[in-house]
Amino acid sequence: MFNRLLTVFMSLCSLSLLQGCFLINGPLEYAEDTYHDETNAPAVNYLPIGIPFVLGGHGSSVPITPELSLTAKHVAKLDYSSVVAYHPDCDVAIIKENNDGKNLSSLGTIGTDEATTTIGMGLTGKVLIGQGKYYIDVNFVDSALFAKCPASITDAPVQSGMSGGGVFNDKGELVGIISGISGPGFKLLDGTKLGNERTSVFVSTLHVKPWIEKAVESYYGESSGVLTANLKDPSESENASF
């Protein structure tokens, strides 16, 4: 992943959060059809918001410890879960959940053009997945949500209800939290076109690593080194997500 942020101008539409009206930007599959042994599949949780089948009002979360999950901040503010911490700048929050018996995601990194898998909950309560690749981190010039936080771009499809779900690398490691959708036809300020068919936006877990460590350590009263063992400092890897 680039070691600098690129600023983009979105020529079709601005960032849309995956709540409220129903949005989808590409083909998705049921996890049960992809992971023949679901005991090895990354886990996500269903977070009800409002009236799910009327407004598409639900979100997703990703278990990271037996008691804590990551989700999108805009989901946590409307969900009924107990919030442990909101990130001050990024669309990420940590909430309390009972994750006993669930696969806990370890955190990892992703490089440019490497494969990504988006995983979140569908309207019917089934786990959905999308396949694609990671492009770059950008600054959206017209998005208050990402005014102080880099937006990571993948073309792996997402839909309403997957906000707060996970973006995973080919090792099954969590590299980001799904935030929203943008238009496919945007370009960088220097005129360069990304060439992506669709734009799914997520927050890099590597970018929020220090905050995750601090929040988890504060909750448990001890170091969270095991949780973030797979994360390297951005300076240690030229291709690391940040």
Structural notes for this entry:
The protein contains 4 helices and 15 strands. With 242 residues, the chain is mainly beta. It has a single domain, classed as Thrombin, subunit H, CATH 2.40.10.120. The strands form 2 sheets. The protein has a 6-stranded antiparallel β-barrel with strand order 9-10-11-15-13-12. The protein has a 5-stranded antiparallel beta sheet with strand order 4-5-6-8-7. Strand 5 and strand 6 form a beta hairpin.
Query: Judging from the principal axes of the Cα atoms, what is the shape?
Result: globular
Rg over CA atoms, rounded to whole Å, is 16 Å
CATH topology: Thrombin, subunit H
Q: Describe the biggest sheet? A: 6 strands, antiparallel, barrel
* SSE order, one letter for each helix or strand: EEEHEHEEHEEEEEEEEEH
The CATH class name reads: Mainly Beta
What is the total number of structural domains?
Answer: 1
Side by side, the strands of the main sheet go 9-10-11-15-13-12
User: What would CATH call the architecture?
Assistant: Beta Barrel
Overall pLDDT confidence: 81
DSSP helix fraction:
under 10%
Structural class: mainly beta
Per DSSP E runs of 2 or more residues, the count of β-strands stands at 15
**Contiguous uncertain segments of 5+ residues:** 1-14, 228-242
Percentage of residues in strands = 25-35%
Distance between the termini: 8 Å
Number of helices: 4
